[in-house]
Amino acid sequence: MNHKAKKQKKGTITQQDVSIILQRYTATTLLALLQEVSQIQDTKFDWDALVKRTKTGITNAREYQMLWRHLAYRDELVEKLEDESKPLDDDSDLEYELEAFPPVNNEASTEAAVCVKGILAGKRRNEAKRRRNQ
Prior knowledge:
Blueprint: E1 9-13, H1 15-22, H2 27-38, H3 47-53, H4 61-73, E2 96-100, H5 106-133
């Protein structure tokens, strides 16, 4: 049998792109969203279920989906969503790979991973402390 390998689509993300999105969402929100989506095993996402248990602070399934699609596929971020906006039909193109531009070297990638782990650990400590004080 001759199977043709699917060619992955590629896109880029720049420092300016990251700067713009950080004006709208905190780094903690973005990291939480990426972590939550990375734990999904299915190729079809249940956006409503994700929003019910998210730690991002996002309460609208369409906004959560829009942010994910922006990060993953470079889809446009809409300025204002209606409260009743429903998620779009999700035929996610999971063969899309986003690359940093300019390319990141191994040292910078390792430093970023350590930084992300530190941010997430600090957030978990703060949440635990807040729960104990309630």
